[in-house]
């Protein structure tokens, strides 16, 4: 019996990422990365997952500093700024978005978020810290992991 081949059918608008993860830490480059990711998400009709990784500060905890409260404050500030920008652009620039926070090392947090959210793409800002030339930035580590397409925004 001979197999019949069904011609491939082009489906407009169904290719491309469905979930785009953008790392956000409040730096200028992370805001630019979030804006770039929002544009991609809008054009692809994808979900934009904005991710903030709350760093552990073991030294601060040892000194009695309420670490969890300080980190939650940063996350709340970022969420307030995101909501302000989304409201400002309402009706002009629509995008589906979520905000997630994770705890830990920024690379591991973004990687875990991308895995859990089944990200098709990851967008991060270029590191603004001088020491990352020696240690390696989150962006470089994500690219080297080779699990997702990674866009690094300057």
Automatic annotation (TrEMBL):
Superkingdom of the organism of origin: Bacteria
InterPro entries: Rossmann-like_a/b/a_fold, Universal_stress_UspA, UspA
Domain UspA: from-to ranges: 18-154
SUPFAM superfamilies: Adenine nucleotide alpha hydrolases-like
Family, similarity comment: Belongs to the universal stress protein A family.
Protein name (database record): Universal stress protein
Native species: Actinacidiphila polyblastidii
